[in-house]
Write a structure and sequence with these properties.
344 residues, alpha/beta, 26% helix, globular
């Protein structure tokens, strides 16, 4: 797709306001997104500046888009309150952004009814870095990637897979839905596989791009975000395809956190064989009370089958994760530190 000077200037100006990064970096990222074919082995790279004190604060919410129903508006209100207290820099959405079957197109009123008109707090008027979930693929998946939605609400930034660089951490967003075998065979739903087929080549390129990006990254903290869980005691449980194909790459490249949604709960699972922590934040609206699986108590650090969200605060030496319920109360807190010169 060719891009004119006027288009580039407009896009750069708009995204500079949204992402808060230097104009040159914005322009490069957006021109790259619009002009480089998907076969090129490189994840789209965005940047976000940390605060003046070198810290970063954010919220994580998933599985939310229900036009305010199932307590979505209450969760959103508490996100606004906690977001103000933490002076958040951005929000991460772990997918399943619009129920039940994604968007019908870029002009679907569900976008505003489930997003713009729900997350109205001043503190939430920050960039929303977003991945697709399986329910998003049941509709017009490409619509959520359409730049038109940023004209409707400039906070919205959804790509299939990309990386977000900050000075202290890099977030690697992964499109996990195409990994799951059952979506290609089930008869009850149809999925929008445009730009994903042929599947084998798409996944091979994605895994190669991610592995290269992780290996080349010198970030203090490496955080991978996807919709589907690698480890979960929720109704969906572990995702075997991710354990087979994605997890070995994360282990080999010193990933600190894997953050996901999909199961409508909040949970923290540790690992026997690596430092990776598995964090589920998929409770943005409808939750599945009591629908859990037995799990190894040695690694299960926290599980809550109600509604809520997650907050995260990072510095160059510390990460603190808090899980909040529908009323914003802290249910679980976890903190990890790294020696400042450990990676030198």
């Amino acid at each position: 797709m060719a891009i004119t000077k006027a288009m580039a200037t407009s896009l750069a100006g708009n995204l500079k306001r949204v992402v808060g990064m230097p104009l040159v970096a914005v322009l490069f990222s957006f021109i790259f997104f619009f002009t480089v074919p998907s076969c090129v082995s490189q994840l789209t790279r965005l940047e976000h500046q940390v605060k003046d004190d070198g810290s970063l604060s954010l919220l994580v919410v998933g599985d939310w888009g229900r036009r305010g129903h199932f307590n979505q508006t209450i969760v959103a209100s508490q996100m606004g309150r906690i977001g103000q207290e933490l002076d958040i820099d951005f929000v991460i959405s772990t997918g399943d952004n619009f129920y039940d079957d994604g968007l019908k197109g870029p002009h679907d009123p569900a976008f505003e009814e489930s997003f713009t008109e729900v997350y109205t707090a001043n503190s939430l008027q920050k960039p929303w870095y977003t991945v697709l979930g399986n329910h998003d693929y049941r509709g017009d998946a490409v619509a959520q990637l359409d730049p038109f939605l940023r004209k409707v609400d400039s906070r919205w930034l959804c790509l299939r897979s990309f990386m977000l660089d900050t000075e202290i951490a890099t977030f690697f967003f992964v499109d996990t839905t195409p990994f799951v075998d059952k979506y290609y065979t089930e008869k009850s739903h149809t999925y929008d596989w445009r730009d994903v087929s042929p599947r084998r080549a798409y996944l091979a390129n994605l895994l190669k791009d991610l592995e290269n990006a992780l290996r080349e990254s010198s970030s203090r903290w490496k955080i991978v975000v996807g919709h589907h869980a690698i480890r979960s005691a929720g109704t969906h449980g572990d995702t075997e395809e991710l354990i087979q194909h994605l997890l070995p790459i994360l282990k080999a490249n010193d990933v600190d956190l894997y953050v996901n949604g999909h199961d409508h709960c909040l949970e923290h699972i540790s690992s026997h064989d690596s430092p990776i922590q598995y964090l589920t934040s998929g409770a943005g609206s409808k939750a599945w009370r009591g629908d859990t699986k037995k799990y190894d108590e040695r690694v299960m650090k926290f599980f809550y089958d109600g509604q809520g969200f997650m907050s995260m605060q990072l510095t160059s030496t510390n990460v603190e994760v808090l899980f909040h319920d529908v009323l914003g109360e802290v249910l679980h807190r976890w903190k990890v530190s790294k020696d400042l010169h450990s990676s030198i």
